[in-house]
Amino acid sequence: MTKTLGLIGAGMIGGSLARLAVGAGLDVVLSNSRGPESLAGLVAELGTRARAATPAEAAEAGDLVVATIPLGAYRKLPAAALAGKTVLDTMNYYPDRDGSIAELDAKVATSSELVQRHLADARVVKAFNNIDFHRLVTLARVSGAEDRSALPIAGDSVDAKGQAANLLDALGYDAVDIGTLADSWRTEPETPVYVKPYFPGEPSEGLSPEEAYRLFVETPGVMVPVDRVRGLTGSAVRGPAGGQFPGAAD
Q1: Which CATH superfamily is 4-234 part of?
Q2: Which end is more exposed in the chain, N or C (fewer Cβ atoms within 10 Å of the end residue's Cβ)?
């Protein structure tokens, strides 16, 4: 059972997961590339269940660990500290941010397979990569709620996917197992299940950055249940790897 969630990366997705975890009664250990002191404000906001640490310390402390850093930095994940752990990988490939990664461009591997290769002694599960940070919080619902949404997961270890599904349940989501890490491309940028199903309509053109952000935070999410996630991931057709970077990740 997960009691402590370690977070390597405390940007938009990491911060949202930390808030959900604290709300669910979990302890969280946060880290980023800038050092524990840079997280003082977020830790203060989260309260006594949160503390800041180095990435290696967060890895060691977590019963489950979330890696939520820019994909281009995945080799900086502390492999030794993560040995034996289940690691939830939220990372997506954005070539304009991460640089070109030949294996991804050639579609001979998925980004999560590269992460698993680096974390050879850990169990990687793709999760939380297909929803924006705002709706990740606003769509969370208690187990059994009629308007509960689902999120896809993928991984090579059945046990690790079970741990991930239990965490999703605690944080407010049903989990849909879509297969192995080789199948995780079905949740990546530009696929049918990526972000748009949880956000109603299309962004209006001609808005200022301030207006666009206000629309983003004021727009309610759309429930995406289990069957809808299964349908969207099942209908995906593999196109060019990567997507357009939407904003800062760490």
Answers
A1: NAD(P)-binding Rossmann-like Domain (3.40.50.720)
A2: N
